[in-house]
Design goal:
Radius of gyration: 21 Å
Largest sheet: 2 strands, antiparallel
Order of helices and strands: EEHEHHE
Number of helices: 3
Helix content: 10-25%
Length: 121
């Protein structure tokens, strides 16, 4: 995320230089679920992680974070979930695949193909 833009005035022909603090340290990773049920309003569940660049700190969301997000959504919705996933590495990890197989009664996962020219001509 970038710092807010500052405006100022300057003499004609001279571009003013405004210094803004903030070195752009860190990044924000976010995962979200858009949930739709016929006859009800849509809902969104999300989880985010802030990376500050510190030693030993994880940089992004792990498969455990995705698993916890799905469990929270299932508890709050109280029904089955149909999930459409891309081929993110965390989605394809063996522990995540085991979780999906163990949650077969309430979780249905559709994996998008890695390359589909007919979807994006």
């Amino acid at each position: 995320m970038r710092p807010p833009r500052a405006r100022t005035w300057g003499r004609l022909g001279c571009t003013p230089v405004v210094r803004v603090r903030g070195r752009g340290a860190g990044r924000v990773s976010m995962a979200g679920l858009s949930c739709y049920k016929p006859g009800q309003r849509s809902r969104m569940f999300y989880s985010f992680h802030v990376y500050h660049g510190r030693k030993g700190e994880k940089k992004g969301l792990t498969w455990q974070d995705y698993r916890d997000l799905l469990i929270r959504a299932h508890i709050q919705l109280g029904g089955p979930i149909v999930l459409v996933w891309d081929n993110l590495r965390a989605h394809l990890m063996p522990p995540m695949q085991e979780f999906v197989r163990a949650s077969k009664e309430w979780l249905t996962v559709f994996q998008l193909p890695s390359y589909a020219p007919d979807l994006n001509p």
